[in-house]
Specification:
Helices cover about 30% and strands about 35% of the residues. It is of the alpha/beta class.
Length: about 180
Amino acid sequence: MRWRRITWDTNFSGIDELIEEFLMDNPYDHHACLDIGCGLGYSLDKIRELINSDQVYGIDTSRKALVKAKDKSSNVTLICASAECLPFNDKIKFDIIVAGHVLDSSDEEYLKEMLHEVSSYTSLKSRFYMTFDWHEACSLKQNSAPFRNALANSGWEVIHQESYDKANEYLFAHGLFCVAEKN
């Protein structure tokens, strides 16, 4: 596993930078994106530009965050929802799912429910981009087997994984960037 240092301004996730670098080495044609836990929407416009699509959706359980995200993001659809109960019809299929630091402390049961729900809105070869902080509370730090098992049981295979460091003038953190593909 290699280490990479990235920087960010107010986007503590940094997932858009990691996705961009990954796509340079592994081109993939994305059309519709779902950002789980989009928060204030810092990554939404960058991801929309990166995949060159107007079908970008951000969900978050915080209405206040979505109001602020609406001011920051253009040409994206924002919805107050949880990933284990998505409000979409069966016709929509996402070929990119993004989760920047929202699954860090998830227990195995939540992961199973969320992955089952998300999987019903994806198609073969869809990609799931995730970042995880390696803070002390992160259950994945102690044991990644439940997460990998939940992914595999939902039809996802990890195709890329790397550790990274990130820093700005306020803090320094390290974590894991993971890409899974639907098979």
